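FORM 7B: Structural annotation worksheet

SECTION A. Query
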Amino acid sequence: MAHPMMPQFANSTDATLDEWGSRLFNVSASTVRRGHEGRTGRGGQSHAGTGGHLHTPEARARFVRQKLRDMVRCAPQVMVKLAKATKGLRGISNNLSYISRDGKLDIEDQDGHIITGKEAVGDLKREWQHGGFPIPGNSEMRDAFHIILSMPKLTDPISVQRAAREFAKREFANYQYAMVLHTFETDPDPHPSSHPHVHLTVKTAGLDGTRLNPRKLDLQRWREGFAEALREHGIDATTTSRIHRTTQERWKVRHFVEGATQTIRVDRSRRETHAPHVQREIMKNYEGVMKALARSDRGDDRQLAVDLVRHLAGQSRMQEKEKGRSPERE
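SECTION B. Predicted structure
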């Protein structure tokens, strides 16, 4: 028979993970809004989806747990970059020529049509100029956003393209957009990137007049949405900002046997007071998360706490090693 306090304790763990983990990963009830929760990725792993509103502590706690699991197993990091916005028809024309390499690479639009060749790209430019809300030749307004969706080298480029297509359909269903896949093998640029990536240019004015105006939370949602779309196509992917992948503090794990159960405790073994304020705040959130996992009645939570301590310790050692390198070795 289950102990009457166990469900309450589990809920308490979820509530604590929600409190510290949501701060850690900048998650709120309105952070993510599309897709489906609880999708299963490659290898049968269940991923905390980015869909719907994460409107309960339990849902956000599941999301935090999955982010931490992805982190300790070093899942490939997605990159979603918002490049400089284009202004006026001249800016959009230059952008479409650039991403298509002057018509040498195929453009795919929001309807799935393939635009091939320089002449067809010119037709697309005129369509954007006059279709929907017209674009003036010269403008001080941001008439389109240029987004880059990228994955590490050796990632299957076709899967990256398919994931970008699904992401764009979900996120920009009300907008005109153009997307182009760049790979090391197909990009005619003299110095092509080894990272498969998709250039996605989205017209700022939506078909209903709504203007695209991305904020910080939107960028985070885009990262999560692209990562989820990649997982749906069999590509292991996660999102963690660079500052999360470094640490200037260390922790240690203490194991205790109390009766027939084993418990663990996470303690700080060193504290760096000179760390930047943002990083100190992140480390404080990590400590809250790890202590909550260590106190959990779930064995997989306690193991995750141990794995996280080891992962952060490894990151700290790598950071110290990097600092000790001479410039010649960089």
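SECTION C. Observations
The beta strands are 39-40, 46-47, 79-82, 107-109, 114-115, 144-150, 177-182, 197-203, 250-258, 261-270. The chain has two domains: 6-74+241-322, 79-232.

SECTION D. Sign-off
Analyst initials: ____
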